[in-house]
Amino acid sequence: MYWTRILGTAALVGTMMLTGCSEDAAGTVTLNLTVNTFEPGVDAMGVPNAEVCVFDTTDCATTDADGLAVVMLPSNTETGVTITAAGFNETVLAQYTDAAFLSDQTTTLLSDSVAATLSAVLEVDYPPVGTGVIGLTTLFQPADGGGIPGTTYTLADGTGTGFYSTDGGVPTYDLTATSSFGAGGFVEVGPGVVEIDIGGAGGCGASQAWPGATASSIRLPVQDGGITFAFVFCETVGVTVTIEGAEEPFGDSVPIEGAEVCQDGTENCATTDADGVAALQIPGNEEFAYAVTPPSGFFPLLSPQVSDSDIPLLPTLTVFSETTLMAFAGILGTDFPPTTGTIGMVVYEDPFPDAVGIPGVSFELIEGTGRSYYLSEANLPTEMLTETVDNGSGGFVEASEGTLEVGLSGTQNCEQRPYNAWPGAEPNQFRFPSRAGFLTVPVVWCGAE
Length: 449
Fold this sequence. Notes:
- This protein is mainly beta.
- It contains four helices and 37 strands.
- Strand 17 (210-211) and strand 18 (217-222) form a beta hairpin.
- The longest helix has 11 residues, at 322-332.
């Protein structure tokens, strides 16, 4: 996990104080910069006696015992600071002192030993000679919203080799986009000002970076032997949804063209192509649901999600045929088409996708009403069972509309993040939407940690 800190990611941003600009009559703004150290497994501490110098000037300040330095920057200017301290790698922070400038900021210096470890993992020389390093993080708003997965960093101007951090926090050349940490960067970057295009997210604004030529790019100064850190706060994350349809219950499914996929309750929609694929930009850090309206012959679907750092970026959602749902309704003695909500739940053993259904789990409605059922070993719904069998499946018919909350018993550790559900009020409880004319399919993971 400590590689998150090493690469200048969410741990750094989580400590940034989002305080507005403080400007005086002399055309300057005040930067109150706290400089912390980082060592794996050790609490961050202020770095005393670090020198913080404004770009291209002799205006410098020395950090106090708590690591705080106060410097004055020219207002409405692309500027920045360089931070040096004995035993640490030189750090570069770009600052754009417009109305959105943050007066109170925190950054972390990498000790020579940590920076050397990073260099060894990425198979580059330390200390770098003739080149610099960039550590970049894409995050949801607010600052503690977590890293955005699936974003890409491309050098539009400048030279260097890109890397991303894995979900385990280890930098690698093998990934082609950010993991849930939202972290990556470039090594062996030629000194000067580089421009980086940010892909896979929308509504982005930079902090500790300069504006780029486009709304989706930033510019950063790189110094010989230095590490430049930057952050990009974004409002949305890009997802690519694949819709497949199964003619028979739990049979083989094929991509469906012409299905409308929406962020439920909004006009944020896209239509699937011949491969069953639709692309959407989803607001970050929200509970939402995909509302899928397929072509005639298939039944509409609601798939609840949370758009945080764990959001699946390439979800595949399967819709059932109307014939299947009609047969299930007949078995359960309920109306078709339904005039109430219909819920189909699955409880899997972690981890997914190698998961299997968990038997012996019962579902209880905590908020809302409905008739419970479970799927038999033959994958047929029945009200004769009182808990799941090996397929881990069941649900509710004649469910009230609105947001339902369900508690699970007969399993453990369901407080782990749900996959297709919203967190409930207590561990082993989950929430999801219910609406007439749609099948809601919550999927949760339980079992040993």
